[in-house]
Design brief:
Radius of gyration: 24 Å
Distance between the termini: 28 Å
Shape: globular
Number of strands: 37
Oligomer: single chain
Structural class: mainly beta
Strand content: 25-35%
Largest sheet: 6 strands, antiparallel
Length: 689
Amino acid sequence: MQLPSKQIWCRLPIYTVFAAVLPLVGCDPGGGSTNSGGGGVGGIVTGGGGTGGAGTAGSGAAVSTGGAIEPGADTTIVAYAGGSGAERFEAALGLSDGTFLFAGSADNLDFVPPETPKVEIAAGTINSASPTKIGFILHASGDLQTVLHLVHFPVGTVRDISRLRLTGKPGAPSGDLFISGRRDVTDKSNDGYFIARLDHNFISGVPSKALWTFDAKCPPREAGGGTGESAYKTIQPWDVGSDGRVVYGEGAEYDFKWAQIQRLSPEGKPEVVENFTAHWSDSTEWDGTPASSYQGGTLVRSAIVMKAGRRGSLRSATQEDFDALLPDGNGRTDRKGRYPDDYYFSGPCSLVNNTCPGGPGYTGYKTSDKPTQRVGAIAIDRDSGDFYVGYSTQSTLPDGNPDFEPAVAALDKTGKLKWWSRLYHERTDKDGGGFNETSSPDQYVDHLAVDHTGKTLVVLARAHGNNVINYWSGDKVAANPGAKSFHSQFTGSSGNIHISWVGKLSLSNGVLQAASWNAEYAEGTGSLGAPYDDPNLDGWPSHNAGWPDLNTTRVASLAVDADGRVYLTAVGRRTITTKTAYQKMPKPNEGMSGWNDYVRVFAPDLSTLVYSSILRGPWDTSMDGGGGNISLIGVVPAKEGVLAVGFHGYDEVTMTPAGVPMPVSNVPAWCEAEPQGESAVLAHLLFSP
């Protein structure tokens, strides 16, 4: 069966709503042809007890920090949840007692078994009025057979609950439960998301109220005409430490106005951070450090200003810091500047006067006229309290063309910079002498997670296109010369695509420990290499052999378990699937591929895959599979597998479920075998079924 047109099914992840900045390339063939290949009819490819298929672009940007869990039954479960209430699961979490939390939104709660205890939490001072929407948390048993509790906000208040965080680290007792979700307001200047701390975590008791709530303000981009949503609202970049302090970002990305990172106390109040460089009293701003040296009265809050070039931003304040030549984290020692934003400027930005020169910087880069930066992720080390910020800056290349540059900044719990990484060499040697000094692909940081066992920061970054300098190759790791990588480098000739990269950096100094691209093959590509020698990779052509074209691959969620394995959900085209995948993608000689959402687990050293499976409705593999109908937007590590959640899309014209239902397995009594319009998706997949 052929799916309807791509225009109906293909979507970009919702974190790319700033379409004026990023080209809409999600389901465009981009760098891959759609030439037909061989294959049978029906799109059924058996593997691991499932059937074949593929899916649409994922949405959201969730990171799970729950520990490894032990479901009550080692059973593959794939099912729908919901009826006609536009249900979505947007985040999931494993609690240390083995049970699960699923957060999301719905127009009604009729899909929940009537005997389920339900608790309505007051929205309090959250500024939001989302017509018909109910943000909820569903608490399920470890075997997923029973809904234990449902906690929700009143109908018509928040749009959803889309992020779940615990103060405990993976493998440890869960700790306190913090949540966030999107707010909808009439006055767009007050738009954004909320953060809340609940009074219980479902282990100590069922939540009955929010101990506090906080509204992060994220107005739409003025540079985009004031329409749509700020990426800060969509991404909701925040995390909580073991002490209950929250570091969060707010504002509008690539804009003229404002963006910042602040910290909330365990009581939910903005607090002064000793070594931040921008601070406010009740009446004035003071730029300086440390906060305790201020002589003008009482400071009430502090921030990192995410506006490149301004005082208080991530920019050196002294000539000595500006001129410092430091290691770049992967073998070179000629990276200039103590702070990441020095890259764009000709000198330091003093904190004691208005001397703050513009660009360009030492390689010719300068900032654009839209200096606010996009914070893609924030992660806090539950052991030390140190925190990590991944962001990108809209810049201008030396030839005047536009660009976007990434950075990861590590700060200790007092707010003092520990290290930073560009994730690539700012200068590389040219053949014949001299240096390459520009990285023309647009590059972004989308997710961060802390691997507490391996003492590394997991960075999920993205590149739009390729040129001489891009993210570090997984087989060229200075700290580990013998490193192997599942997918070591960019290949092919496709430029107008967005592909993802995973790296592990040392928490202490930012040195690269391992890396792999996460980018699927383009349909119809040639130049395929020999198969991987890992039997778990099922005879797929190796990314590290040949020179095949790649296609757009975006990651929607990221998690790390207590063993250091990296879990993600993503959208791709010809997705590599493992031997025991629930649904396998046809190999290039087996039939046509189709856009699909998938769940993937990397080995701790990123050298190979533990598991990879697509999830979508079957399609006719003798022709183009079009776009899929499943969005996977949350992922949770499990002891012997992985749990992914999301939703099944619907046809906006007919208001019926999109395409063909995904194959289901062992459907719990509270779930359904088929979608009814937009329905939540639940998939518990075993590595060895």
